[in-house]
Structures are given as structure tokens and as C-alpha cells.
Amino acid sequence: xxxxxxxxxxxxxxxxxxxxxxxxxxxxxxxxxxxxxxxxxxxxxxxxxxxxxxxxxxxxxxxxxxxxxxxxxxxxxxxxxxxxxxxxxxxxxxxxxxxxxxxxxxxxxxxxxxxxxxxxxxxxxxxxxxxxxxxxxxxxxxxxxxxxxxxxxxxxxxxxxxxxxxxxxxxxxxxxxxxxxxxxxxxxxxxxxxxxxxxxxxxxxxxxxxxxxxxxxxxxxxxxxxxxxxxxxxxxxxxxxxxxxxxxxxxxxxxxxxxxxxxxxxxxxxxxxxxxxxxxxxxxxxxxxxxxxxxxxxxxxxxxxxxxxxxxxxxxxxxxxxxxxxxxxxxxxxxxxxxxxxxxxxxxxxxxxxxxxxx
Length: 359
Ligand code: KG4
Ligand code: ZN
Hints:
- The protein is 43% helix and 19% strand.
- The strands form 2 sheets. The protein has a 5-stranded mixed β-sheet with strand order 3-2-1-4-5, with helices on both faces. A 5-stranded mixed β-sheet has the order 8-7-6-9-10, sandwiched between helices.
- It folds into 2 domains: 5-127 and 310-355, ATPase, nucleotide binding domain (Nucleotidyltransferase, domain 5); 134-307, ATPase, nucleotide binding domain (Nucleotidyltransferase, domain 5, 2-Layer Sandwich), CATH 3.30.420.40.
- A hairpin with a 2-residue loop joins strand 7 and strand 8.
- The chain has helices at residues 40-43, 51-73, 92-109, 118-130, 168-178, 185-193, 218-232, 239-267, 284-297, 306-309, 314-326, and strands at 5-11, 16-25, 28-38, 82-88, 113-117, 136-141, 146-153, 156-162, 273-277, 300-302.
- It is an alpha/beta fold.
- The protein is built from 11 helices and 10 strands.
- Helix 5 (168-178) runs parallel beside helix 7 (218-232).
- The site of zinc ion has 4 residues, from helix 4.
């Protein structure tokens, strides 16, 4: 990037209130501050994110997070070039809180306002962390999303495929619930799987027989349920049974993600990098599988650090910086959008995960 900009990013689309200050340009990006105030404790008694509680908590915490981000960055509002805010997709109350906060700041300072697609924030993170050049292939795998995106520019995405039902994180969480493991299920299932035999249970590899890179994960958890019940007809579930079930489940997810990634890469012969982001990318076995596929295909594998894979405002500031440099500006008519596909030409999918417009 041949310009130098300092951006305040604001994110409030799900259950994390976040603000960050980022300096971009002259060969790299520097995160000056990255504040994330999670709401897990508020939602825990309800077993999922409660939109009303989330919106209220965002409204209470946004200005505190912004003030902290500016303080930690040692920056005043007058030193910024623009303000970037998540304008969707997400839980509408939270997105509106963020957009209102950003509009207030721009009204008070006269700084340009830039509405950012939350998914673009995730999709552009490999450029923030590793300076990956366009075009590249992005696999977004989280509790709410699973999709392959070809990324050609900050506003140029092609969705190559994705899940037609559950997101993988959702499948990990449900599997954990079936096996009485704690939430979030991903880390718990991964820890169990490390002790288990992945070959004892022959779980399905859904949609492998279908061409393209769409995926399905909901049948997998039903298979885990059946296998668990079959084991339990002989008595209680032993620790080794639980570990073997987790190992078998994880191996199935790994095989599906690896094969579908192979196909997505084959669909874009001109790309030189495969990037993965989202909470599920924290899984070492899945990451290993994807790294192997990248190696086979002769492309670079990029997996940003976890703190930048999960929801944060540094990624929103970065996406805002790219848009700012392109000359994109919003004004006071900027609207909060509950749905906002990155690839407008792609047909509406069930496949953003059943938990909603979260990524
Ligand atoms: O991206 P993320 O932090 O939140 C959103 O969904 O937006 O992803 C959370 C998901 C959860 O479903 C969690 O179980 C899963 O990521 N996850 C993992 C691991 N760590 C977190 N899944 C598999 N293995 C892990 N180690
Ligand atoms: Zn997200």
C-alpha cells in the first residue's frame, strides 16, 4: 500500500465489543491498540447469545472501548484519518450501536466514516497479518460460518462454496454437548481427540460424492449421536469411548475440509496463497490437514494468529483502510445491515450456519 493512514476500527456485530487503532502503509500495518470486551459471561446462563442483552452491553461498552483503544495507541481523535465501523452482517441491535457510535464520532470530529462488511474484515485479515497479495483463497471457518472465498480486492469476492447446513464450529459444539463436554466445544473435542483412535468409528464424509466445494456437517453430529447410543447400550460411556468418538468426528471434519479445499484451489489456478480464519482454525489437526493441501498445490499457507482470527476491531480498521485508500466514503445515511453477503452475485445460501449472521 503506498499511502499511510491511521484508522479507528469499531466492531459490535455479535458478542464482542471491540475498538482498535491501526496504522497502515509503507510496506506494512501496525496495530497500535486492539481492545476486545467479550460478553460471554452475560450470555452463559442462556446457552447462546441473547440479541437484546448483546445490544445493551455494546451500547454500554462502546465508548469505553474506543477511549481505551485511543489511550493505549497514544493517539487522539485528531490524529486519525478516518473511522471504520462494522455496518453488517450481524445482530442488528449490536451493529446499530456501533454505527451510531461511529456516526457520533464523525459528527463531532468531521472525520470520514467508512462502513465495513464484517466478513470482509475476516477475509482481509491475511493481508493485515502477512501482506498476502491479491488474489488468494480464503476459508472462513467459525461457529457461524463456513465458506470458500476467492478474494480479488477489498470489494471483490467470489464465493466458491460453503456449508449447506451447520458450520463446523457448530458441529464441534453440538458434538461436545452430546458427549457432556464443556462449551465452546471445539477445544474440548480437540483435547479428547488427541487421546482417541480416529479409526474406531467410521463416520461419514458428507457430500464427498458431489462435485464442487459445498459441505454439510449436520449429518455428522447425528452419526456421533447414534454411535454414542450404540456404545451406551453396553453400559456407560467410558473415557476411551468419548476420546474415540471425538477422534473419529474430528478426522471426518478434517477429511472433508481438506478435500473441499483441494477442489476450491483447483477452481483458482492463478492464486498463490490459501488462508484460513475463524475460531475453528485454532484446531491443530484441521490446520495440519489444510497445510498439507496447500503444500500439495504449491501455494503458501497463511493462518493468522487466533486473536486476529476471531472477532476483533483491528480487522475492521484494516478493511476500512483499504477502502479509504480506494476513495470509498460513507455519510450519515450509512445503514446497519443484518444480512450483507460479500459476493452479491452468489445465490442466497442456507449455508451461513444456523446460528445466524455471525462469522
Ligand atoms: O470465530 P469464532 O471465535 O466465533 C464465531 O463463530 O464468530 O468461532 C467460535 C467457534 C466455536 O464453535 C468453537 O467451538 C470453535 O470456533 N473452536 C474450535 C476450536 N477452538 C474454537 N473448533 C475446533 N477446534 C478448536 N480448537
Ligand atoms: Zn466474525
